[in-house]
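Review form for a predicted model. The reviewer records the input and the model, then writes brief findings.
Reviewer: anonymous (R2)
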Amino acid sequence: MTLSERVFGFLWKLLLVVLPLSSFPLLSTIFGGTSVAPLAFVPMAVIIIFWWLPNFFRNDRKLPYQVKPLLVFFLVGMLSTLFSFFHQVPTFRDVPWLQNTAETLVTFAMGLGFYLVTIFAIKSPEKLRTTLVWISIGGMVVIASSWIQYGSWLANNHFPEWMHRIQELVSSSGVLYRGRATGLAYEPSWLAHQLNMVYLPIWLGLSLSGQSAFKKKLFNNIQYEKVLLIMGVVTLFISFSRIGWITMILLATYVIYRLTNTWIEKLSHKHREQNIQVSLARQSIFRLGIWVGLIVGFVAVILLAGFLMTKFEPRMARLFDIQRFIDFGFMGWASTLGFAERIVFWQAAYAVFQLYPLLGAGFGIPGYYFTLTVPNFGTRLPEINKVALTQNFIPNAKNLWVRLLSETGITGFALFTAWLVVHWRDANWLEKHSESGLLKAMGLVGKLIVIAMIIEGFSLDSFGLPYYWVSLGVISASWLIAQTEAETTTSSGQTLPSADR
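Model under review:
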């Protein structure tokens, strides 16, 4: 192994280990005080400059086909931004909209960089396995820091001073939240986002598939991913992130759906083998009963999660206050739970989409319309008035999907969604056609990541956080490895199913 390869390998492993540091103070200062300043940006940028770009130009500028929808999305976004010169964009805090657009482009370039570096770094099954191991090591750091924080809170009902100082070193917010774990992230919801977008889907998918990135087992008997999965779910629980809990519940629901469907198919196959005649009506009633039971179970889990939230999370204390809902409507009820403000941000951004439905208002521009598009109910909320009248940042949508609509219209939204669909198709192909057990398992991991991203997109809207870029990059890299193996096998005289491009 050459010195260059060793340095590259070290930087890639470093990127994966520091992935949990989502808002590193020094980088935040360099980037102008933004909260999105992942420490992993540093090794990513070095890899891009000294390894990816030189290789890109040496290889006739070939890009994986998965990147193409993103590039077209970027072009559409730039086109809509150029059209903004012909709009009367409102002023807000005397911040030029070109400045906010530039910040958006930087965060998008950052995310794209993480995606490309991930694909570039994983070129073989062994490198995929190594990547998964180092991702898990980073996950162990997340779990340890979160458990220490929450354990200290339970023991003392406050965080010691040394813990606050450490948090100030690793996060630009420097804040520890009462009764909640933050890990190394900016805030507890970002901790939940990390877990749901990277660590839990990998550990869950590998555990269910019986595959492991580790060559040995714990006590020579227990798969590491299963232990990490349990510890990761506990960590998610003590973050008390509402969207984090919902995402995990839906991931578990999808897994139960798969397992139930597989069981039904096996039972039907067994009946056919034993020549047991079951009428179509009985089969339909049987299947309907199972799915009704699953739906009832899902509702029960949601209600249980809500009940636990009312006990542990002060914001959710009035979750089951039906009278409040009757007297003041949905938004009045939501205001007591602390998420009416978030819905108002969604509504304000969606109103910008209604003004420019085809191409949107342009990258980073919808926030300038905030005072014009905020619904009347928002003026009754202190947080909304604070944003509109006193704070010096441009409001954002706080929802990736609404942001895409407001900035790039239905065209950009469709292209970004197509990029996500591409990963679902690749994951489906891996699960059905790959000969490798690990790559087949990555198919399930990929589906879990896509589902998690759909749900998490309702809470975060930044392009700059690296988590979904890295995790989807791992899936693209896995697909490319499987394709290379398929082509090799085909050239040796065997035939494997080819992927739809």
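Findings: The chain is about 70% helix and 0% strand.
Further findings: Residues 400-433 form the longest helix (34 residues).
Recommendation: see findings above.
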